[in-house]
Design brief:
InterPro entries: START-like_dom_sf, START_2. Residues 1-125 form the START-like domain. This is START-like domain-containing protein. It contains 3 helices and 7 strands, in the order E-H-H-E-E-E-E-E-E-H. It is of the alpha+beta class. It has a 7-stranded antiparallel β-sheet. It is globular, with a radius of gyration of 14 Å. The termini are far apart.
Length: 127
């Protein structure tokens, strides 16, 4: 199996870190933009899309700062993360997404995140 590469995407967001975190770390928030249905039990999110279910375990989190998840069917050292930062220059809230993909899939995966984050920004009224 080839080693997948970590990549990082950044998105400016016009809302408070507290509100943004709710959309990134709660079943109700994630269900607004990330999946059709989201459940959480024993630190494991179940994400449903068109009848298929994928599960991701919460690896680490700090309220209003970040949440790191690992798909249960992925490599142990791979994860995806939503991190909330403040730009020191503009004082703007920035959502940083970290994920892993094969080198040839990074562009497609980045486009998928762009689409998902656009939906998130629409839901929180940040577009």
């Amino acid at each position: 199996m080839t080693k997948r590469i970590q990549y990082t995407l950044e998105y400016p967001v016009r809302c408070s870190p507290a509100i943004l975190y709710e959309f990134l770390a709660t079943p109700a928030g994630l269900q607004e933009w990330f999946a059709d249905k989201v459940d959480l039990r024993d630190n494991v999110f179940s994400f449903s899309w068109n009848g298929s279910v994928e599960k991701a375990q919460i690896v680490e989190q700090k309220p209003e700062e970040y949440i790191r998840l690992r798909w249960l069917n992925s490599q142990k050292d791979e994860y995806f993360e939503f991190r909330i930062q403040k730009s020191e220059v503009t004082n703007e809230t920035v959502l940083v997404v970290k994920d892993f993909a094969d080198k040839k899939e990074i562009q497609d995966q980045s486009r998928l995140w762009d689409y998902q984050i656009k939906e998130l920004l629409h839901r929180i009224g940040s577009l």
